[in-house]
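Consider what follows.

. . .
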Amino acid sequence: MKRTSENILMSFATVFTVAILFISCGDDYERVGEEAVKPLFPQGVAQNFTLTYTETMEAMGTQDSANSRVMAVLTSPLSEDFDNQRFKFRTFPKGLQVDFYDEKNQRSVIIADYGIVYSQTNLIDLQGNVVIETHDGKKLETDQLFFDQKNNWIFTEAAFKYTNPEDGTVMDGEGMDFNKDFTFFKANKTFGLMTIKEEE
């Protein structure tokens, strides 16, 4: 009887000591840099992603099947949906292509190595080998480009190269903003070689 009480008391003392050791061993390690950032996980992942933006010509009722036209088609090999975050966004880590169509159904194309679409602000951030080619052959090349979908405005602070085959010009610069049709644009800084085609 005495030994059993001693064994119980000894076991209780051991468990109590181990518990105190675990409780007192808090994690005081201060995480900084990349370690401090909590990992984000998408709520959905789509492969061979295609999204078509359309616009109806007139307001639709509940039973209507009004005509609509395709404004843009976004395609990407991989899309990650982070709408589960407070500030919602969607990423395209393997690149994307956006085909834009004007009122005459003429196609212009944007490609990039990486893209982020911010749902709440209607802003698209394109990064890495960004190229815009319009239906009439104008071409813009840069490393980063922002597209404000709400205002149909495109801008960059990065270095760019702009080629216009209509007048034979090639312009290098840094920082530019313009409308999606390239009918108005403003370059912040131009430098390097500007070639102007001579009239024959």
User: Anything to note?
Assistant: The chain has a mean pLDDT of 80. DSSP finds one helix and eleven strands in the chain. The first strand starts at residue 44 and ends at 56.
